[in-house]
Design goal:
The chain has about 120 residues and is mostly beta strands. It contains no helices and eleven strands. Strands 2, 4, 5, 6, 9, 10 and 11 form a seven-stranded mixed beta sheet that branches. A four-stranded antiparallel beta sheet has the order 1-3-8-7, with no helix packed on it. A hairpin with a 6-residue loop joins β5 and β6. The radius of gyration is 13 Å and the shape is globular. The termini are far apart. The model has no long low-confidence stretch (mean pLDDT about 95).
């Protein structure tokens, strides 16, 4: 079992930046691929970014590519999402997720952290 706790959300003006953190505990963090997802009220949860267990591979949704950066520090059991040039449409609850490397889906989820971008 892996427990995930997000932090770093808040209110920011359009064009601003935030860095989300996700602290993991439980199993060996370095063996897990990690991802960030987001969900706005009335909408489905959308994929934002993912990073392989080693940090060597990163993936982004088209809507955030070039603005968001996912990274991880396996020594600290933490994954980050640096969000720059934020837009009002980035407003959502952001969720951290983990899956054992090679697994088909994300089995572990945090409780989420709210990001609100004002225009």
């Amino acid at each position: 079992q892996v427990q995930l706790v997000e932090s770093g959300g808040g209110l920011v003006q359009a064009g601003g930046s935030l860095r989300l953190s996700c602290a993991a505990s439980g199993r060996t963090f370095s063996g897990y691929d990690m991802g960030w997802f987001r969900q706005s009220p009335g909408k489905e949860r959308d994929y934002v970014a993912a990073i392989s267990w080693s940090g060597g591979n990163t993936y982004y949704a088209a809507s955030v590519k070039g603005r968001f950066t996912i990274s991880r520090d396996n020594a600290k059991n933490t994954v980050y999402l640096q969000m720059n040039n934020l837009k009002p449409e980035d407003t959502a609850a952001y969720y951290c997720a983990g899956r054992l490397s090679g697994a088909s889906g994300f089995a572990y989820w945090g409780q989420g952290t709210q990001v609100t971008v004002s225009s």
